Amino acid sequence: MAAPESGDGNNGAARMVTLISSDNTRFEVEAAAASLSQTLQLTILDGGGGGGDGIPLPNVDSATLSKVLEYCIKHAPAAANGGAPNATAVDRAELERFDNEFVNIDQSVLYSLIMAAHNLEIEGLQSLVAKKVADMIKGKSPMEIRRTLGFPDPTPEEQAEMNAHMLEYGWAYE
Amino acid sequence: MDALLEDVSTWVPAAAATASLSSAVAAAAPADGVDRISALPDNLLRNIVSHLPVRDGARTAALATRWRSLWRSIPLVLRDSDLLLASTFDDEVERAVAFAAVGCILADHPGPFRKVQLTCCEFGTRERSSRSGRDSSPPRACRTSSSSTLTILPRTACYRDSPTTSSAALHSNGSSSPTGRSHSLATTKASPSSIVPSVKILALKVNFSAVNEVNMLPSFLRCFPNVETLHIESSVIGGVTASYHAMFWREVLPVECLKSHVKKIVMHKFRGHRSEFEFLKFIANGARKLQNLLLVLTKEVSASADQVAEVNRQLAIGTCIWTWAAKGFEMMLMGTTSDDADTCSFLKTTSLSVNDPFM
Question: Which InterPro entries does the UniProt record give (chain A) (predicted)?
Fold first, then answer.
């Protein structure tokens, strides 16, 4: 994913922009893909990120950024179609398959993605990762959720609070 | 354009500076079994919780002190179908349990209610089902002023069981029955505990041939004094003499939401039946703020030029003799090519981005 700076981004048909991660890795991607980020969109529209400049993203590390861009590149064509009203069922199924596979990742990566999607304002990715965490929580008891999310064992106070909640919100445990 | 450029250049670094969390989370990259989700700010945790069905969402409040208030701070999206497993969808006991839960949820969540969609609970079984034993007061959320949407599509069966179905839907908060089993609906008043002032958009299905449904309609509307947009999906199954309707609507006392708030009424699956026209006449005389009336014809009627002409003729007569109260009032007749699109697209009603999910 990490592409060395080429400097001749305007050569091909599609305009390219360069994004620079917090650990100074440069990523060259099509402007259309990077524009899935509302945060980057205006800068790119104004001609930023081309040539040797690059857009620094000091709050996204290279591992996370490469994952984010993987998502953007895959989703850019559909987004360019305005939400792809004329996309075929096959295209949609393919995107869905990609999304499912895409979030099949370590929790640490997942949370970095949540932050990055939030900071870069990539709507589709935000809801995709939030849904993934929701799926990890769904259908579990509070204790199971705590274990899934890696919470330490509850203190006696927390345990008492949990029991109180189960009594108070009985309907949530039926 | 220059101003825009300046705007962006000042804004991008600022946004970057405020959010150094992601790299912190990633850099730490701890081994499994470590709580990483807690590094996320509250708004992102809320976003996660908002993707959960109502029971799962509420359960997260038990996780830890920080999670305690999250579910209650997110506008409630309640679909009673979420309370039922697909396998138990037709199980009467399960449905009764789910219905009991609806009351508890409305009482436990402080609001606002983003969507409340009750489509499968049997309101007629309320007496048998209130086994939760909670003596809950009317939900506080019902008193909130923010806008929300309420969808109530009770099964036809429950009309048979209980003539006060629509009203009973509101009894689900566990308060005592206000309008009770009264049939003298022209005089029935909605009691405070059954009033939901927060609802701005209301959608309901009414069979204009069923006496008890028509009887219930004014009382039901009285429970929503602030509704601005009213969607009615009409059906005409079976027959009642039109004279009954004319008489009934003449005697109905003014309905608050129609009198002072309703700006737009959409009648879906309009057939031009006389019972529907009697209702329109009632609206014409009572809805003082009404700006738009949209009549969407059924597929069958739209397909027949004769029937469309007949509906048009009736409307023309109606608009001459009825007194439409508001200035600038507009009426529109629309045809459809498909009846498949249900008034209430369930997907749409739960989307937080749609202003009026029933259009």
Answer: SKP1, SKP1-like, SKP1-like_dim_sf, SKP1/BTB/POZ_sf, Skp1_comp_dimer, Skp1_comp_POZ
